[in-house]
Amino acid sequence: MGDKLYLSYRQIHRTVRSLAARIKADGFEPDVIVAIGTGGFIPARMIKTYIDLPILTVGIRAYDSNNQLERPRKIQWIDEVEKKLTGKKILLVDEVDDTRTTLEYCLTELNSHSPAETAVAVLHHKQKPKLGVIPNFVERYYAGVDIEDVWIAYPWDAEDIDEHCDRAELSESAVGSEA
Amino acid sequence: MGDKLYLSYRQIHRTVRSLAARIKADGFEPDVIVAIGTGGFIPARMIKTYIDLPILTVGIRAYDSNNQLERPRKIQWIDEVEKKLTGKKILLVDEVDDTRTTLEYCLTELNSHSPAETAVAVLHHKQKPKLGVIPNFVERYYAGVDIEDVWIAYPWDAEDIDEHCDRAELSESAVGSEA
Questions:
Q1: Could you tell me the residue range of the domain that residue A112 belongs to?
Q2: How many angstroms separate the CA of residue A103 from the nearest CA in chain B?
Q3: Is a pLDDT exceeding 50 seen at residue A100?
Q4: Over 80: is that where the pLDDT of A74 sits?
Q5: pTM for the complete prediction?
Q6: Residues near A174 by Cβ (< 8 Å), separated by ≥ 6?
Q7: Is residue A169, in this structure, part of any structural domain at all?
Q8: Is residue B165 part of a domain?
Q9: CATH number of the domain that B70 lies in?
Q10: Which residues of B are less than 8 Å from A61 in CB distance?
């Protein structure tokens, strides 16, 4: 706790590559990628290089009401195409499984459109107590890396990308093992 | 022509930083970012670090009918939130202004929702004959870098990100001047 883990784009891209390889090795063949915005935008676009599918996005803002609970609110949803999710296999992508609140919300919402299956892929799974759950109907959960409950500094949030990547190289040894 | 320009994530992120600085220096204060998918996803998320706004996405697939014309088709549109664009200042983001067909299509569609203003930001502007036009109602157009009509190899399309970035460093000197 209190530590900050700096990750470079190269590291993230490598994690995506191994994540995609595991999804393929598992025999899961999704029909569509759904990216949770805005954290899932970059991981989802990277995944598309290895698993070439259309990407739909859902925009979620997690509200912190009275510091009690993150309550997700829709910024953008799938609307006219959501009916197309019926009977489809969805790969839901986000950057991190942190409190799990957003994942639970999105999984439950997506399931109301009767997909054939919904799987989850995240870059990082934080090993910590969760406020949300992965619903029972989700049979496939892929995490690129399991990590401690540290602050992850993603490269896309960097003001100075060169300084950020230099730090990332220094902290590379602190990354958890590939799951 | 025939050349291939390899770009690293660091280079792209630096281009986004200077692009965002120019948008700010120009006094443009958008209310919302609209990213054109899937090429605009990563640039838009990077821009958000410097210009912190909600990102909406539109999914476009460019069809090549009989090799004559790229015809964009909607994969995802904004739907229930599109009415919220009325009276708003939009920053439309894509990775490249190539034939300009997709930009013209998206700008025209967005304008039907009566925004206060729609500006365009692209990482790269290819200096070549265009099949589409930037409509007259667009007063602000920002391109990170003006380049020749070369094939741009974006890092997110790389199978092997380390090999890609090594090539990017080699070809860095071939990048056009910052616009």
A1: 9-147
A2: 19
A3: yes
A4: no
A5: 0.90
A6: A3, A5, A150
A7: no
A8: no
A9: 3.40.50.2020
A10: 54
